[in-house]
Design a protein that fits this description.
Blueprint: H1 6-31, H2 35-66, E1 67-71, E2 78-82, E3 87-89, E4 96-100, E5 103-106, H3 112-118, H4 122-138
Antiparallel strand pairs: 1-2, 3-4, 4-5
Helix pairs in contact: 1-2
The protein binds zinc ion (ZN).
Zinc ion binds near residues 72, 75, 90 and 92.
Length: about 140
């Protein structure tokens, strides 16, 4: 097996020439008094993975702190939600839940009564009248 494959030699040469060019540019910039520019670019490139790492750990820490794991009080389905979420819907039974003290609580969605009040039909009126009559008889 011969290692001097023309393609590999070409690749190694182009890689070497890239670094040589980079070195030349760095030397040139340093020579004309732009060494600080090179330094800041190097620092920037060193900082990018560092910032990414810090962000990753920060997000993990934040999620770990604000993640709520509990069972749905209606159907017992275990799920996770975020402390910041005001309302969460159970994926199993569809019940709207709220998070209180790290626990899921049943929550009557606000505005439900208003929506029902808007949709008043004559049938609903008749029903409420008969209920009133029934209440009278009960008393
Ligand atoms: Zn549920």
């Amino acid at each position: 097996m011969k290692s001097n494959d023309p393609n590999i030699t070409q690749l190694q040469f182009s890689g070497l020439s890239f670094w040589l060019t980079l070195l030349l540019v760095v030397f040139f910039l340093s020579a004309v008094g732009l060494g600080w520019l090179v330094k800041s670019i190097v620092i920037l490139f060193a900082l990018i993975p560092l910032i990414g790492l810090v962000a990753l750990f920060g997000v993990q820490w934040w999620i770990g702190r604000s993640l709520v794991r509990d069972r749905c009080p209606v159907c017992g389905f275990e799920m996770a939600g975020l402390q910041q979420q005001e309302l969460i819907q159970c994926p199993n039974c569809g019940e709207t839940l709220k998070i209180e003290d790290g626990r899921f609580q049943r929550s009557a969605p606000p505005g439900t009564i208003d929506v029902q009040a808007i949709d008043v039909s004559s049938k609903a009126l008749g029903e409420s009248q008969s209920t009133a009559n029934y209440d009278d008889r009960a008393n």
